[in-house]
Design goal:
Elements (H helix, E strand, L loop, with lengths): L11 E4 L7 H14 L3 E4 L7 H11 L4 E4 L2 E2 L5 H15 L3 E6 L3 H6 L8 H16 L6 E2 L4 E2 L16 E3 L4 H10 L2 E2 L9 H14 L8 E11 L5 H18 L2 H9 L3 H23 L8 E3 L1 H13 L4 E7 L3 H12 L1
Helix pairs in contact: 1-12, 2-3, 3-5, 5-6, 6-7, 8-9, 8-10
C-alpha cells in the first residue's frame, strides 16, 4: 500500500488529570502525547483545580497537540472572563485552544458556585456569541436575555486563532440543535454505541438546515475506549464504569436522568434510583452493570482499535481514549498504536 492509499491516522483525545501535586507526571504525559501525534489533550474542571492553569502549562510545554477544556461551565464566569482566559491560553499556545463549554448540572452550579441554575440554553448561547465578539477585538453592543453590553472595551489579549473554536457539551435536543447552529464541535455523552450513528446524522441534518455544511460540527465520541493492558483488571474497571454511570443517572441532576430516558433506558434508571434509595451506591451499581457494556468500550488494544474504527464509520471525528497503566512508556506505546 502506498502512502497515498494508506488509511488516515485516528484522531485521539486524552484527558489528563490536573493536580499541582503531580505536575511533573501531568507534563511528562503531555509531552509524550504531543510527540506521538495525539490530536487533543483535555483538562477537566469540576469542584477541584481550575482548568486554565493546567491548560496554560500545556500550552507552554507542548508544540502541536490541541488543548481543550472538558468542560468549563457558563455560569461561574462571565463570557468576557471566559474569552480572556481562553484567548490568553490560545495566544500562549500559538492557536491550539479548543473551548469546551457546557452548563454543567444544578448541583455543581448551585452547591459549589452558589449561582442559580437558570436559563441554561440562554446562558450557553450568550457565552458562544460573546466569546466570539470579544475574540474579534472589536467594539460591539450586545443585548441578550441575561447580559447587556454597550460599547464593549477591546480586549488586550491577542489569540492565535482568528476565530474561537467552541465545542459544546449538550444533552437535550434543544441544546444539541443549538450546537449544530452555533458551535464548531459537539461533545455528546451517555449515548449507547448502537445509537451514535443516528445521533451524528441528526446533527448533520440540523447543520444543513441552518445553512452550514453537514460536517461543520466536529463530533467527539460519546463514550471512551479504555485500553486494558492487564486483562485481570477487566472486572474492576467495568465495575468502576458502572458506578460512574449510576451516579450520573441517579445523583447528577435531572438532565442526565432524562438523557438516559431519551436513549431508551427509563426502566433501568428507575431501577437504579430505587436500588440507590434502598441499598446505596453499591446496589445501584449492580443494576447499572446490566447496561454499562452498551456505553463505550473497555478491553484489549485490538478491541479498542476496532471500536474506534466502527465509531469513525458512524461519523465520530475525535475519539476519547484512556490507557489503564501507571507506566508512562506503556501508556505512550498503546496510544501510538491507536493513532496509526
Amino acid at each position: 500500500m502506498t502512502s497515498a492509499q494508506s488509511s488516515p491516522r485516528r484522531r485521539i483525545s486524552v484527558n489528563l488529570p490536573w493536580n499541582p501535586d503531580f505536575v511533573d507526571t501531568f507534563l511528562a504525559r503531555a509531552r509524550l502525547a504531543d510527540e506521538i501525534g495525539v490530536d487533543t489533550i483535555s483538562v477537566l474542571e469540576g469542584y477541584g483545580h481550575d482548568a486554565f492553569t493546567g491548560m496554560a502549562l500545556l500550552a507552554h510545554e507542548t508544540n502541536n497537540v490541541r488543548i481543550a477544556s472538558s468542560i468549563v461551565n457558563v455560569f461561574s464566569r462571565t463570557p468576557a472572563t471566559l474569552a480572556q482566559s481562553f484567548g490568553t491560553v490560545d495566544q500562549l499556545s500559538g492557536g491550539r485552544v479548543v473551548i469546551g463549554l457546557g452548563d454543567s448540572a444544578p448541583g455543581a452550579i448551585e452547591r459549589f458556585h452558589g449561582v442559580k441554575f437558570e436559563r441554561p440554553f440562554a446562558r450557553i448561547r450568550e457565552a458562544v456569541e460573546l466569546i466570539r465578539l470579544y475574540w474579534s477585538r472589536q467594539r460591539f453592543d450586545y443585548d441578550g436575555p441575561t447580559i447587556h453590553v454597550e460599547r464593549a472595551l477591546v480586549s488586550g489579549m491577542i489569540p492565535g486563532q482568528p476565530t474561537a473554536q467552541i465545542h459544546l457539551a449538550s444533552l437535550h435536543p434543544t441544546s444539541v440543535k443549538m450546537t449544530a447552529e452555533l458551535a464548531d464541535g459537539w461533545m455528546p455523552t451517555w449515548i449507547p454505541n448502537d445509537r451514535v450513528q443516528e445521533s451524528v446524522q441528526q446533527v448533520k441534518q440540523w447543520c444543513t438546515e441552518f445553512g452550514r455544511p453537514d460536517d461543520a460540527v466536529e463530533v467527539r465520541s460519546a463514550g471512551s475506549a479504555t485500553v486494558l493492558l492487564d486483562p485481570e483488571r477487566q472486572a474492576e474497571i467495568d465495575r468502576g464504569f458502572a458506578q460512574g454511570l449510576a451516579f450520573f443517572a441517579v445523583r447528577n441532576g435531572p438532565g442526565y436522568f432524562h438523557q438516559f430516558e431519551r436513549q431508551g433506558f427509563a426502566e433501568e434508571v428507575a431501577a437504579m434510583r430505587q436500588a440507590w434509595q434502598d441499598g446505596g451506591v453499591g446496589a445501584a451499581t449492580e443494576v447499572a452493570m446490566e447496561i454499562a457494556p452498551k456505553f463505550s468500550r473497555r478491553g484489549s488494544l485490538q478491541d479498542c482499535a476496532a471500536h474506534l474504527d466502527e465509531q469513525t464509520g458512524f461519523g465520530v471525528d475525535l475519539h476519547q481514549v484512556s490507557v489503564d497503566t501507571d507506566d508512562d512508556v506503556a501508556w505512550a506505546d498503546a496510544l501510538s498504536q491507536l493513532v496509526k
